Amino acid sequence: xxxxxxxxxARLASxxxxxxxxxxxxxxxxxDELTVKPWDRGMLATFAELVSADGPGPVADLGCGPGRITxxxxxxxxxxxxxxxxxxxxxxxxxxxxxxxxxVGTMTDLAIPDASLxxxxxxxxxxxxxxxxxxxxxxxxxxxxAPGGRLLLAFQVGDEHRxxxxxxxxxxxxxxWRLSPDAVALLLEDAGLQVDARLVRQPDSWEKVPQAFLVAxxxxxxxVASAY
Length: 228
What we know:
- The chain is α/β, with parallel strands linked by helices.
- Helix content is 34%, strand content 29%.
- The chain has one domain (10-201): 3-Layer(aba) Sandwich (Rossmann fold), CATH 3.40.50.
- This is Class I SAM-dependent methyltransferase.
């Protein structure tokens, strides 16, 4: 993939700076997180099984961070690659997983051809988009998915905006939103994506709120009716 420039506003710049700052420590702290989260692994495995059953094709890990989910998707048999706004995160991902592809980019302007992905994962990466911008994000997801392509979202449940001044041992400035699964499902449907399943699990001991996982699908092209 050829990286292309994108228009960056102050919000995107703040997200990029925050994740550039914490990239190394973030990767180390969360490196083995999936090993103690069976529900999360189950949703990723279900997504991978569905995508594989539909046939081969690339899968984008959108907001991939240090690449741990990208690598896990590879372990599940998918042809996955990662995209992240933070060059610092991409550097960490490339160093940790040199066999895989990682690119800098933004979810609102993906350098991916129309209808080219068998699947896409946004694992806690939509949380930094204000709710009013999610229709733009989901429209871009719909654009890049092939007919029948699958989408997996993960996010924290709630209805509030949070501003963080510190994280992963660093001073940062970062905004995040907890989201309603019902509201997210409606926005996905408005973008032309059919929600097939959802899971809301209770927080683990170190989490503050329930966690949501939604699996959606871009409807396949309708077959032409036979005249006979």
